[in-house]
Amino acid sequence: MGTFNYQGEQFLLDGQPIRIISGAIHYFRVVPEYWRDRLLKLKACGFNTVETYVAWNLHEPREGQFRFDGLADIEQFIQIAADVGLLVIVRPSPYICAEWEFGGLPAWLLADSDMRLRCFHQPFLDKVDAYYDVLLPKFKPLLYTNGGPIIAMQIENEYGSYGNDKKYLEYLKTSMQSRGIDVLLFTSDGPEDAMLQGGMVDGVLETVNFGSRPAEAFAKLREYQSDKPLMCMEFWNGWFDHWGEQHHTRDEADVAKVFQEMLEANASVNFYMFHGGTNFGFYNGANNPKYEPTITSYDYDVLLSESGDPTPKFYAVRSVIEQYEKLDPLVLPDPIKKQAYGTIQMTEWTGLFDQLDALGTKTQSAYPETMEKLGQDYGFILYKTHVTGPRGKTNLTLQDVRDRAIVYLDNRYIGVIERDREELQELELEIPASGAQLSILVENLGRTNYGRFLKDCKGITEGVRLGYQFLFDWEIYTLPLDNLHSLSFEPGNGQEMASEEGGADQPVFYKGILTIDETADTFMNMSGWTKGVVYVNGFNLGRYWERGPQQTLYIPAPLLKVGDNEIIIFELHGAQQLSVEFEDTARLG
What we know:
Layout: E1 4-7, E2 10-13, E3 16-17, E4 21-25, H1 35-44, E5 49-53, H2 56-59, H3 74-83, E6 87-91, H4 122-139, E7 150-157, H5 166-178, E8 184-189, H6 193-199, E9 205-210, H7 214-224, E10 231-236, H8 252-264, E11 268-275, E12 286-287, E13 292-293, H9 312-322, E14 342-345, E15 348-351, H10 356-359, E16 361-365, E17 380-387, E18 391-402, E19 404-409, E20 412-418, E21 426-431, E22 436-443, E23 459-466, E24 469-470, E25 474-479, E26 490-491, H11 494-499, E27 508-516, E28 522-525, E29 531-536, E30 539-545, E31 552-555, E32 563-571, E33 579-583
Parallel strand pairs: 4-5, 4-11, 5-6, 6-7, 7-8, 8-9, 9-10, 10-11
Antiparallel strand pairs: 1-2, 2-3, 12-13, 14-33, 15-26, 15-27, 16-25, 17-22, 17-25, 18-21, 18-23, 19-20, 19-22, 23-24, 27-32, 28-31, 28-33, 29-30, 29-32
Helix pairs in contact: 8-9
Protein name: Beta-galactosidase
Keywords: Glycoprotein, Glycosidase, Hydrolase, Signal
InterPro entries: B-gal_1-like (IPR026283), BetaGal1-like_ABD1 (IPR048912), BetaGal_gal-bd (IPR048913), Galactose-bd-like_sf (IPR008979), GH (IPR017853), Gly_Hdrlase_35_cat (IPR031330), Glyco_hydro_35_CS (IPR019801), Glycoside_Hdrlase_35 (IPR001944)
């Protein structure tokens, strides 16, 4: 019913010239109740298009089991975009990067030790085909050619940064076209020779991703694609944070300057991001070769904050657009209320070791198995074995751990072994004559989402050594922590829990109640707590860690209810005080 294509260096919408000014908003990082608010703000800023990735691991969490509800209701997100007058760019590549767990690939792919990712490996392609058989038909009525808002779709993401398998890229192209995807197809890569050579596909528009020096980037693109429109598919106007880093920021004047340079070059632009949102649950990714997990907040220092508020970049960018496009007077949705609810105490508790049978599935194995081999995707995994004694002081080595292990001997805390941290690779143990139970709790801190170490199994991948001797005969508990309803809590006030015998020597679930008269956005200040995960009314809000830079966890109002709200904190090490404060301002950096 409509056409979006190009003639020479000009994009055409129904035959009329158009410059795409787009912004990225990931539906899976924003609660559905706020999709319209964020999209209206995108439109108000002067943008004509929204772009989103599609996260395979969200839509097919178990092989053959699909979900498209709640945070996964991408059809509703796209329909709301159309309702507010936006065009849509969809990037449904099997792999998306996006600082998202495993780059969007489902963890169950790694249950097959022979699996090869992002190449012409038929077992991998078979999984992609099964996914596309379900996913792509959902997009057909939403295509611009069928009267919907989707004008373009991506066939792979920054593939030239990973490989050069053109047969694989052609397969994905054909996979989309054979399932009725007849809108413009594109790829996106960094503006470098190897990346463009590896990522381009015949008959598919190439776009480039960068954060600065647009003239250089577009000049390199023109060396490979001289007669097509210029487009920056990812203008990195901010950046993401790893745990233990300073919060990344970028001056709005610099962002506006680079954006204007692109418009002067008659280029189209997609801001990555316009609104970042939140890595709820265990969905944050990580980077390598030095393993660095991404924080829960995906604020990204962009045009809208994590909680959806316009930032100085919003107004700076709109001022640039006004020089090139006629905009209506700025009208924004009513601000979403934020509330400082004050402090609550954690009034109930239970230890992890007392709840293993309620939370996990137990397996006996001669050797430690990875999460993926045991059918687990995210969360924690516990390995237990009996070690004979006596043994003098001997080093315990995990070969190798992914990603962070807490070691206990007879349920007494010994220490932490962390992946890729030289000072935390071994612990010294001494075993009494009667022997001892060795327990190792491993946390999956997020699978690698970019680069050559993408195949990132979790848990203990090879074995456990005490000195030169590998230890065998293990009891393994998978602990995805995706449902805490079976937990049994004990009453007690903060002081009693802090001094409870064994409390400091095992991870503890703490529960408190937040009672409110009205719902509003709020921020849970985790100062004084060490490391763990927070659940609000059963919803996994994400991780906290004293390393920072993130100090508060964002709680959107739709996760709360008038009356009593259950707050559960899974603390791995211990807290200075067993209370939390709910504030009306984020603390990041």
